[in-house]
Design goal:
The complex is a heterodimer of chains A (113) and B (112).
Chain A (H helix, E strand, L loop, with lengths): L4 E3 L2 E4 L5 E6 L6 E8 L3 E9 L2 E5 L6 E5 L5 E5 L8 E8 L8 E2 L3 E5 L1
Parallel strand pairs in A: 2-11
Antiparallel strand pairs in A: 1-3, 3-8, 4-5, 4-9, 5-6, 7-8, 9-10, 9-11
Chain B lengths: L3 E4 L2 E5 L4 E7 L4 E9 L6 E6 L5 E4 L2 E6 L4 E6 L8 E9 L6 E2 L3 E6 L1
Classes of the chains: A mainly beta (113), B mainly beta (112).
């Protein structure tokens, strides 16, 4: 069974640009959550999607957005990039809502210059 | 109330020793407590998890101890090996969502 696939693995963007990251969950999993990991702030929840609907949102500005498709694949978008957006962005896949196990992908390393 | 506090920040253990990492939470709505292991350049990997209706769960060399009244839980790694050198995160979630609240992480180094 394939794991969680995140693409691309690495990205370098310039301040002010926008970026789209992709996540394919484990087959059969319908919930996708996104996290930002930085040395200073640790692992912080961005948002969670289930059945193409955002179910929960973390404390991030509106520049951070996401969506989920009917095949459960998810994308997150960051507009007007800032230097502080440089981070490892992680996607977690869960079978459903509620207290089910969450499995992470390898992440996308975003560097904003 | 959403915080999960993790200690120590770093830990050095000799090969064969016991590594112990502690976490504390405040939100009594949390009802699922996983531990993740992360190697450099990789995503966090689910190691072991516990629900508050049990006080201990063991999987191989890894044991979670859970104290509901104290709102604390800990990870014990028995017979620690150099390959266990990684960053460990405790986490918590509840309320019917999959949002994980993570501790700050513990960097474990197991010396041969």
């Amino acid at each position: 069974k394939a794991g969680v696939t995140q693409t691309p693995r690495y990205l370098i963007k310039t301040r002010g640009q926008q970026v789209t990251l992709s996540c394919s969950p484990i087959s059969g999993h319908r919930s996708v959550s996104w996290y930002q990991q930085t040395p200073g702030q640790g692992l912080q929840f961005l948002f969670e999607y289930f059945s193409e609907t955002q179910r929960n949102k973390g404390n991030f500005p509106g520049r951070f957005s996401g969506r989920q498709f009917s095949n459960s694949r998810s994308e997150m978008n960051v507009s007007t990039l800032e230097l502080g957006d440089s981070a490892l962005y992680l996607c977690a896949s869960s079978q459903s809502m509620g207290n089910t196990e969450a499995f992470f992908g390898q992440g996308t390393r975003l560097t904003v210059v | 109330q959403q915080q999960v506090k993790q200690s120590p920040q770093s830990l050095i253990v000799q090969k064969g020793g016991i590594s112990i990492i502690n976490c504390a939470y405040e939100n009594t709505a949390f009802d699922y407590f996983p531990w993740y292991q992360q190697f450099p350049g990789k995503g966090p990997a689910l190691l072991i998890a516990i629900r508050p209706d049990v006080s201990e769960k063991k999987e191989g060399r890894f044991t979670i101890s859970f104290n509901k009244s104290a709102k604390q839980f800990s990870l014990h790694i028995m017979d620690s090996q150099p390959g266990d050198s990684a960053t460990y995160f405790c986490a918590a979630k509840g309320g019917g969502y999959n949002k994980l609240i993570f501790g700050a992480g513990t960097r474990l180094a197991v010396h041969p």
